[in-house]
Design a protein that fits this description.
Mean pLDDT: 86
Distance between the termini: 87 Å
Strand order of the largest sheet: 1-2
Number of domains: 4
Number of strands: 6
Structural class: mainly alpha
Strand content: 5-15%
Oligomer: single chain
Length: about 350
Protein backbone atom coordinates (compact mmCIF):
# COMPACT_ATOMS: atom_id res chain seq x y z
CA UNK A 1 0.00 0.00 0.00
CA UNK A 2 1.56 3.39 -1.07
CA UNK A 3 0.80 6.62 0.77
CA UNK A 4 -1.27 8.90 -1.43
CA UNK A 5 1.24 11.75 -0.75
CA UNK A 6 3.80 9.92 -2.91
CA UNK A 7 3.71 8.99 -6.59
CA UNK A 8 4.93 5.58 -7.71
CA UNK A 9 8.07 7.21 -9.13
CA UNK A 10 8.81 9.05 -5.87
CA UNK A 11 8.26 5.86 -3.84
CA UNK A 12 10.67 3.96 -6.15
CA UNK A 13 13.23 6.75 -5.82
CA UNK A 14 13.07 6.62 -2.01
CA UNK A 15 13.42 2.83 -2.05
CA UNK A 16 16.42 2.77 -4.45
CA UNK A 17 18.24 5.62 -2.70
CA UNK A 18 18.42 3.66 0.57
CA UNK A 19 21.40 1.43 1.49
CA UNK A 20 20.72 -2.30 0.81
CA UNK A 21 20.04 -3.19 4.48
CA UNK A 22 17.75 -0.23 5.02
CA UNK A 23 16.12 -0.89 1.66
CA UNK A 24 15.18 -4.43 2.77
CA UNK A 25 13.85 -3.10 6.08
CA UNK A 26 11.88 -0.40 4.27
CA UNK A 27 10.31 -2.94 1.90
CA UNK A 28 9.49 -5.24 4.86
CA UNK A 29 7.97 -2.36 6.82
CA UNK A 30 5.78 -1.20 3.93
CA UNK A 31 4.68 -4.78 3.25
CA UNK A 32 3.87 -5.38 6.93
CA UNK A 33 1.81 -2.19 7.13
CA UNK A 34 -0.07 -3.16 3.96
CA UNK A 35 -0.69 -6.68 5.28
CA UNK A 36 -1.86 -5.36 8.64
CA UNK A 37 -4.17 -2.85 6.98
CA UNK A 38 -5.66 -5.57 4.76
CA UNK A 39 -6.13 -7.96 7.69
CA UNK A 40 -7.69 -5.20 9.79
CA UNK A 41 -10.14 -4.40 7.00
CA UNK A 42 -11.27 -8.02 6.70
CA UNK A 43 -11.53 -8.45 10.48
CA UNK A 44 -13.53 -5.24 10.79
CA UNK A 45 -15.84 -6.32 7.95
CA UNK A 46 -16.29 -9.75 9.55
CA UNK A 47 -17.22 -8.24 12.93
CA UNK A 48 -19.96 -6.21 11.25
CA UNK A 49 -21.71 -9.34 9.92
CA UNK A 50 -24.42 -11.23 11.90
CA UNK A 51 -23.13 -14.06 14.14
CA UNK A 52 -23.91 -17.63 13.06
CA UNK A 53 -26.05 -18.07 16.19
CA UNK A 54 -28.05 -14.87 15.66
CA UNK A 55 -31.24 -15.31 17.77
CA UNK A 56 -33.81 -14.65 15.04
CA UNK A 57 -37.34 -14.96 16.42
CA UNK A 58 -36.20 -15.06 20.06
CA UNK A 59 -37.02 -12.27 22.53
CA UNK A 60 -34.05 -10.28 23.88
CA UNK A 61 -34.93 -8.00 26.80
CA UNK A 62 -33.17 -4.77 27.77
CA UNK A 63 -34.61 -3.83 31.17
CA UNK A 64 -35.43 -0.26 32.16
CA UNK A 65 -32.35 1.34 33.76
CA UNK A 66 -29.84 -0.93 31.99
CA UNK A 67 -26.57 0.92 31.38
CA UNK A 68 -25.08 1.19 27.90
CA UNK A 69 -22.20 -1.05 28.94
CA UNK A 70 -24.62 -3.69 30.24
CA UNK A 71 -26.81 -3.39 27.14
CA UNK A 72 -23.96 -4.06 24.71
CA UNK A 73 -22.87 -7.00 26.86
CA UNK A 74 -26.39 -8.45 26.66
CA UNK A 75 -26.30 -7.98 22.88
CA UNK A 76 -23.03 -9.89 22.58
CA UNK A 77 -24.03 -12.68 25.00
CA UNK A 78 -27.37 -13.10 23.20
CA UNK A 79 -25.64 -13.52 19.83
CA UNK A 80 -26.88 -10.26 18.29
CA UNK A 81 -23.35 -9.02 17.52
CA UNK A 82 -19.84 -10.44 17.37
CA UNK A 83 -18.20 -7.64 19.38
CA UNK A 84 -19.67 -5.59 22.23
CA UNK A 85 -16.77 -3.13 21.85
CA UNK A 86 -17.56 -2.46 18.20
CA UNK A 87 -21.28 -2.11 19.01
CA UNK A 88 -20.41 0.38 21.75
CA UNK A 89 -18.31 2.36 19.26
CA UNK A 90 -21.07 2.21 16.63
CA UNK A 91 -23.67 3.48 19.09
CA UNK A 92 -21.41 6.35 20.14
CA UNK A 93 -20.38 7.28 16.60
CA UNK A 94 -23.83 7.23 14.96
CA UNK A 95 -26.29 7.46 17.86
CA UNK A 96 -24.48 9.46 20.55
CA UNK A 97 -27.57 11.61 21.19
CA UNK A 98 -29.87 8.58 21.50
CA UNK A 99 -29.79 6.10 24.41
CA UNK A 100 -30.48 2.39 24.04
CA UNK A 101 -34.21 1.92 24.61
CA UNK A 102 -35.52 -0.46 27.25
CA UNK A 103 -37.65 -2.99 25.39
CA UNK A 104 -38.05 -6.65 24.50
CA UNK A 105 -36.64 -7.01 21.00
CA UNK A 106 -37.51 -9.68 18.47
CA UNK A 107 -35.50 -9.77 15.25
CA UNK A 108 -37.21 -11.69 12.44
CA UNK A 109 -33.93 -12.06 10.51
CA UNK A 110 -30.18 -11.71 11.16
CA UNK A 111 -29.04 -8.08 11.12
CA UNK A 112 -25.66 -6.43 10.67
CA UNK A 113 -24.06 -4.71 13.64
CA UNK A 114 -25.10 -1.30 12.29
CA UNK A 115 -28.71 -2.44 11.92
CA UNK A 116 -28.71 -3.85 15.46
CA UNK A 117 -27.37 -0.54 16.78
CA UNK A 118 -30.17 1.37 15.02
CA UNK A 119 -32.82 -1.05 16.29
CA UNK A 120 -31.59 -0.74 19.89
CA UNK A 121 -31.92 3.03 19.79
CA UNK A 122 -35.48 2.87 18.46
CA UNK A 123 -37.00 0.24 20.75
CA UNK A 124 -39.33 -2.50 19.57
CA UNK A 125 -42.91 -1.28 19.73
CA UNK A 126 -44.41 -3.54 17.07
CA UNK A 127 -44.73 -6.70 19.14
CA UNK A 128 -47.44 -7.59 21.63
CA UNK A 129 -45.73 -9.57 24.37
CA UNK A 130 -47.22 -11.74 27.08
CA UNK A 131 -45.58 -12.84 30.31
CA UNK A 132 -45.29 -16.63 30.59
CA UNK A 133 -43.89 -17.88 33.89
CA UNK A 134 -42.76 -21.50 34.05
CA UNK A 135 -41.94 -22.39 37.68
CA UNK A 136 -38.85 -24.45 38.51
CA UNK A 137 -39.68 -28.15 38.59
CA UNK A 138 -42.55 -27.89 36.11
CA UNK A 139 -43.10 -30.99 33.98
CA UNK A 140 -43.73 -30.97 30.24
CA UNK A 141 -47.41 -31.49 31.06
CA UNK A 142 -47.36 -28.46 33.40
CA UNK A 143 -45.66 -26.28 30.78
CA UNK A 144 -48.22 -27.28 28.19
CA UNK A 145 -51.07 -26.19 30.48
CA UNK A 146 -49.41 -22.86 31.31
CA UNK A 147 -48.68 -22.05 27.66
CA UNK A 148 -52.16 -23.08 26.50
CA UNK A 149 -53.69 -20.53 28.85
CA UNK A 150 -51.35 -17.72 27.76
CA UNK A 151 -50.73 -18.13 24.02
CA UNK A 152 -53.33 -17.86 21.28
CA UNK A 153 -51.65 -20.12 18.70
CA UNK A 154 -50.23 -22.73 21.07
CA UNK A 155 -51.09 -26.36 20.29
CA UNK A 156 -50.48 -28.59 23.35
CA UNK A 157 -50.33 -31.82 21.34
CA UNK A 158 -47.60 -30.43 19.09
CA UNK A 159 -45.64 -29.25 22.12
CA UNK A 160 -45.88 -32.59 23.91
CA UNK A 161 -44.76 -34.42 20.77
CA UNK A 162 -41.76 -32.12 20.39
CA UNK A 163 -40.91 -32.45 24.07
CA UNK A 164 -41.16 -36.24 24.11
CA UNK A 165 -38.02 -37.50 25.82
CA UNK A 166 -36.92 -33.94 26.69
CA UNK A 167 -38.23 -33.77 30.25
CA UNK A 168 -35.61 -31.94 32.29
CA UNK A 169 -34.09 -30.11 29.33
CA UNK A 170 -36.59 -27.24 28.97
CA UNK A 171 -35.49 -24.30 31.07
CA UNK A 172 -38.05 -22.89 33.57
CA UNK A 173 -38.05 -19.10 33.56
CA UNK A 174 -40.28 -16.05 33.15
CA UNK A 175 -40.41 -15.29 29.43
CA UNK A 176 -41.79 -12.24 27.66
CA UNK A 177 -42.82 -13.57 24.26
CA UNK A 178 -45.25 -12.70 21.46
CA UNK A 179 -48.83 -13.73 22.07
CA UNK A 180 -48.69 -15.45 18.66
CA UNK A 181 -45.89 -17.83 19.71
CA UNK A 182 -46.48 -21.38 18.48
CA UNK A 183 -45.70 -24.65 20.25
CA UNK A 184 -42.63 -25.11 18.06
CA UNK A 185 -41.31 -21.64 18.84
CA UNK A 186 -41.83 -22.08 22.59
CA UNK A 187 -40.15 -25.50 22.57
CA UNK A 188 -37.16 -24.06 20.69
CA UNK A 189 -36.89 -21.13 23.11
CA UNK A 190 -36.99 -23.34 26.22
CA UNK A 191 -34.54 -25.84 24.73
CA UNK A 192 -32.08 -23.16 23.59
CA UNK A 193 -32.24 -21.41 26.95
CA UNK A 194 -31.46 -24.70 28.72
CA UNK A 195 -28.42 -25.22 26.47
CA UNK A 196 -27.20 -21.67 27.17
CA UNK A 197 -27.60 -22.11 30.93
CA UNK A 198 -25.83 -25.47 30.94
CA UNK A 199 -22.99 -24.10 28.82
CA UNK A 200 -22.43 -21.38 31.43
CA UNK A 201 -21.70 -24.09 34.04
CA UNK A 202 -18.78 -25.66 32.22
CA UNK A 203 -16.23 -26.98 33.20
CA UNK A 204 -17.91 -27.96 36.50
CA UNK A 205 -20.34 -30.21 34.63
CA UNK A 206 -17.58 -32.08 32.81
CA UNK A 207 -15.53 -32.49 36.00
CA UNK A 208 -18.41 -34.06 37.97
CA UNK A 209 -18.49 -37.81 38.58
CA UNK A 210 -22.10 -37.93 37.37
CA UNK A 211 -22.98 -37.59 33.68
CA UNK A 212 -25.01 -34.62 32.46
CA UNK A 213 -28.11 -36.82 32.28
CA UNK A 214 -27.59 -38.01 35.87
CA UNK A 215 -26.97 -34.44 37.04
CA UNK A 216 -30.25 -33.25 35.49
CA UNK A 217 -32.19 -36.20 36.94
CA UNK A 218 -30.81 -35.52 40.41
CA UNK A 219 -31.42 -31.78 40.06
CA UNK A 220 -35.05 -32.46 39.11
CA UNK A 221 -35.47 -34.49 42.31
CA UNK A 222 -33.82 -31.81 44.45
CA UNK A 223 -36.09 -29.20 42.85
CA UNK A 224 -39.15 -31.01 44.22
CA UNK A 225 -37.65 -32.25 47.49
CA UNK A 226 -36.05 -29.01 48.76
CA UNK A 227 -37.18 -25.40 48.79
CA UNK A 228 -34.23 -23.12 49.62
CA UNK A 229 -30.64 -22.83 48.40
CA UNK A 230 -29.39 -24.16 51.75
CA UNK A 231 -31.74 -27.16 51.82
CA UNK A 232 -31.02 -27.93 48.15
CA UNK A 233 -27.27 -28.15 48.80
CA UNK A 234 -27.68 -30.28 51.94
CA UNK A 235 -30.21 -32.63 50.31
CA UNK A 236 -27.90 -32.85 47.29
CA UNK A 237 -25.04 -33.96 49.55
CA UNK A 238 -27.26 -36.58 51.25
CA UNK A 239 -28.55 -38.03 47.97
CA UNK A 240 -25.12 -38.13 46.36
CA UNK A 241 -23.74 -39.92 49.43
CA UNK A 242 -26.58 -42.45 49.20
CA UNK A 243 -25.74 -43.01 45.54
CA UNK A 244 -22.08 -43.45 46.42
CA UNK A 245 -22.63 -46.07 49.12
CA UNK A 246 -25.38 -47.83 47.16
CA UNK A 247 -28.49 -47.38 49.31
CA UNK A 248 -31.91 -46.44 47.97
CA UNK A 249 -32.63 -42.71 47.63
CA UNK A 250 -36.11 -43.10 49.15
CA UNK A 251 -37.50 -39.85 47.75
CA UNK A 252 -41.24 -39.29 47.48
CA UNK A 253 -40.97 -36.82 44.59
CA UNK A 254 -40.37 -39.47 41.93
CA UNK A 255 -43.68 -41.17 42.76
CA UNK A 256 -45.40 -37.79 42.92
CA UNK A 257 -44.30 -37.38 39.29
CA UNK A 258 -45.52 -40.81 38.19
CA UNK A 259 -48.86 -40.68 40.00
CA UNK A 260 -49.40 -36.96 39.32
CA UNK A 261 -50.38 -36.39 42.94
CA UNK A 262 -49.32 -33.54 45.25
CA UNK A 263 -46.45 -34.54 47.52
CA UNK A 264 -48.48 -34.07 50.71
CA UNK A 265 -51.20 -36.41 49.38
CA UNK A 266 -48.96 -39.43 48.78
CA UNK A 267 -49.84 -42.41 50.97
CA UNK A 268 -47.76 -45.30 52.28
CA UNK A 269 -49.46 -47.53 49.71
CA UNK A 270 -48.47 -45.16 46.91
CA UNK A 271 -44.82 -45.60 47.88
CA UNK A 272 -45.13 -49.39 47.56
CA UNK A 273 -46.28 -49.38 43.93
CA UNK A 274 -44.07 -51.15 41.42
CA UNK A 275 -42.43 -48.60 39.16
CA UNK A 276 -38.97 -47.86 37.78
CA UNK A 277 -39.47 -44.43 39.37
CA UNK A 278 -40.02 -45.90 42.85
CA UNK A 279 -36.78 -45.02 44.64
CA UNK A 280 -37.86 -46.98 47.72
CA UNK A 281 -37.95 -50.25 45.78
CA UNK A 282 -35.09 -49.48 43.36
CA UNK A 283 -31.59 -48.26 44.07
CA UNK A 284 -30.07 -45.46 42.07
CA UNK A 285 -31.70 -42.68 40.09
CA UNK A 286 -35.04 -42.93 38.29
CA UNK A 287 -34.78 -43.44 34.51
CA UNK A 288 -35.53 -39.82 33.52
CA UNK A 289 -35.80 -36.38 35.09
CA UNK A 290 -39.06 -35.84 36.97
CA UNK A 291 -39.46 -32.22 35.90
CA UNK A 292 -37.44 -29.33 34.56
CA UNK A 293 -34.98 -28.07 37.17
CA UNK A 294 -33.86 -24.47 37.56
CA UNK A 295 -30.29 -23.24 37.69
CA UNK A 296 -30.16 -23.26 41.52
CA UNK A 297 -30.89 -26.98 41.82
CA UNK A 298 -28.39 -27.83 39.07
CA UNK A 299 -25.75 -25.80 40.93
CA UNK A 300 -26.69 -27.67 44.12
CA UNK A 301 -25.73 -30.94 42.42
CA UNK A 302 -22.42 -29.45 41.33
CA UNK A 303 -21.68 -27.89 44.72
CA UNK A 304 -23.37 -29.94 47.49
CA UNK A 305 -22.92 -29.25 51.19
CA UNK A 306 -21.00 -32.17 52.75
CA UNK A 307 -22.52 -33.43 56.04
CA UNK A 308 -22.74 -36.62 58.10
CA UNK A 309 -26.47 -36.86 57.38
CA UNK A 310 -28.11 -39.71 55.47
CA UNK A 311 -31.78 -38.84 56.13
CA UNK A 312 -34.00 -35.77 55.97
CA UNK A 313 -37.66 -34.82 56.30
CA UNK A 314 -39.69 -31.67 55.81
CA UNK A 315 -41.69 -31.07 58.97
CA UNK A 316 -45.28 -29.88 59.07
CA UNK A 317 -43.80 -26.46 59.85
CA UNK A 318 -42.01 -26.43 56.47
CA UNK A 319 -38.55 -26.72 58.04
CA UNK A 320 -35.97 -29.39 57.20
CA UNK A 321 -34.75 -31.86 59.79
CA UNK A 322 -31.72 -34.05 59.17
CA UNK A 323 -30.48 -37.28 60.72
CA UNK A 324 -27.25 -39.29 60.71
CA UNK A 325 -28.88 -42.70 61.19
CA UNK A 326 -32.28 -44.36 60.98
CA UNK A 327 -32.99 -44.13 64.73
CA UNK A 328 -32.47 -40.37 64.68
CA UNK A 329 -34.57 -40.20 61.51
CA UNK A 330 -37.47 -42.03 63.21
CA UNK A 331 -37.26 -39.59 66.10
CA UNK A 332 -37.54 -36.65 63.68
CA UNK A 333 -40.58 -38.24 62.07
CA UNK A 334 -42.25 -38.71 65.44
CA UNK A 335 -41.51 -35.14 66.51
CA UNK A 336 -42.04 -33.13 63.32
CA UNK A 337 -44.53 -35.11 61.20
CA UNK A 338 -47.13 -36.09 63.80
Amino acid sequence: MIDEDYTTEEFTEIKTSLPPKRRKFFIWLVGSVALLATASFFIYSYLLTPPANFPAGQPITIELGTSLRAAVRIAEESGLVRSKWLLHFELYRHHKDTAVKASTYIFDRPLTLGEVATKLTEGDHDTTLVKVTIPEGSSVKDISKIASAALDNFDPDTFRNLALGQEGYLFPETYHIPATYTATELYTLLSNTFNEQVQSLEPALSAHTLTLTEIIILASIIEREANTEESMKIVSGILQERLRIGIALQVDASMEYVLDKPLDQLTAEDLKQESSYNTYLNRGLPPTPIGNPGIQSIKAVLNPTPTDYLFYITGTDGKFYYARDFEEHKGNIARYLR
